[in-house]
Amino acid sequence: MTPQLPASGVSYGQLIDRFPERMRPYLYLARADKPIGTWLLYWPCTWGISMAAFSSGMPIQDMAYMLALFGTGAFVMRGAGCTINDMWDVKFDKMVERTRARPIASGAISRPKAFVFLGGQLAAGLAVLVQLNPYTIAFCLGSMPLVTIYPFMKRITYWPQLVLGLAFNWGALVGWTAVTGGMNWAVALPLYAAGVSWTLVYDTIYGHQDKRDDVAAGVKSTSLLFGDNTKAILSVFSSTTIGLLSVAGYMNGQGLPFYITVLGVGSAHLIWQLRKVNIHNPASCWKTFKSNTWFGGIVLGAILADMAYDRLYSNVGNDEKGLCHKAS
To answer: Which residues are CB-contacts of 144 (< 8 A; sequence separation ≥ 6)?
Structure first.
């Protein structure tokens, strides 16, 4: 049986088609049906927050609030980033099969309407931002030039994924400052760099979906630059990611649960995805790209497991000291 199209004749997928017709193109513009982008933006935030909470002894309930606040911000700002990207890339989107149906490229949303929508997204992001301390607010604003110039990078360099990584992992730095009110570069910088290296891995895989259309459109990417050497080069970036996470953990005083999880489970996932992906098959690239949300969760799980172990061990130690004191 052929699925029935909405009254407008345009289907944006089962999730978005459930909403009122006027809302659908805007939800599609914000990629509301593809949460993977939000997760990939959110995970580095959680790394910075949880590492800072581990270091500072932040109460669990306060850390949970911060994680929820950043989750809201990641959803809103990822959508805003998509709007900016589609406004600048409308010409190229019309030339790529996978992106022709995007609302601005297809004409479902005009550029002026997209600009107004972007204003609403940024206003929602500001509402989240003002909940943070002044130092963090100023630090957040530092990422805006990266977000703005990213869509242009694919026109002038084969390394737009590097600029995306610098923008997408800014949350690792912001997460730290949101908890501590300051910056420990010895921890935060290698953590940030690990995220950038990781982005080069997953977004290069993502870019292989469109490489034929990109060549025709004159779009540059690491996917085209690395070509058939992609897996070998991404294995270096994968190793760099694990190495930098280990450096950040060492500088933060992380314990055995962190290293076992990152070096064991995290490394295994990165090895698995490079073995599994077929860079000449768009469906394989998309599936492997999406699997990177598991890696982000693995790193967060490593930090939280270490935090639980550290606090449990500390409580046991304090109880033993109390018993010894009473006995004496």
So the answer is: none
Q: What mean pLDDT is predicted for residues 128-153? A: 90
Distance CA 254, CA 51 (A): 8
The CA distances from residue 72 to 2, 21, 77, 249, 253, in Å, are 37, 24, 9, 26, 29
Angstrom CA distances, 319 to 155, 196, 278, 306, stand at: 62, 42, 54, 20
- Cα 26–Cα 30–Cα 35 angle in degrees, nearest 5: 135
Q: What are the tokens at 319? A: 């109880």
Quick: pLDDT tens for 262-299. Answer: 999 999 999 999 999 999 999 999 999 999 999 999 99
* Rounded distance between C-alpha atoms, residue 285 and residue 289, angstroms: 6
Four-CA torsion 276, 279, 285, 291, nearest 10 degrees: 40
The number of helices, as runs of H, and strands, as runs of E, in the chain is 18, 0
Q: What is the pLDDT of residues 206-242, one digit of tens each?
A: 999 989 888 888 889 999 999 999 999 999 999 999 9
Q: How far apart are CA 140 and CA 202, in angstroms?
A: 24
Reported pTM: 0.88
Distance (Å, whole) CA 194 – CA 248 = 9
d(CA 66, CA 49): 7
Q: How far apart are alpha carbons 168 and 94 in whole angstroms?
A: 25
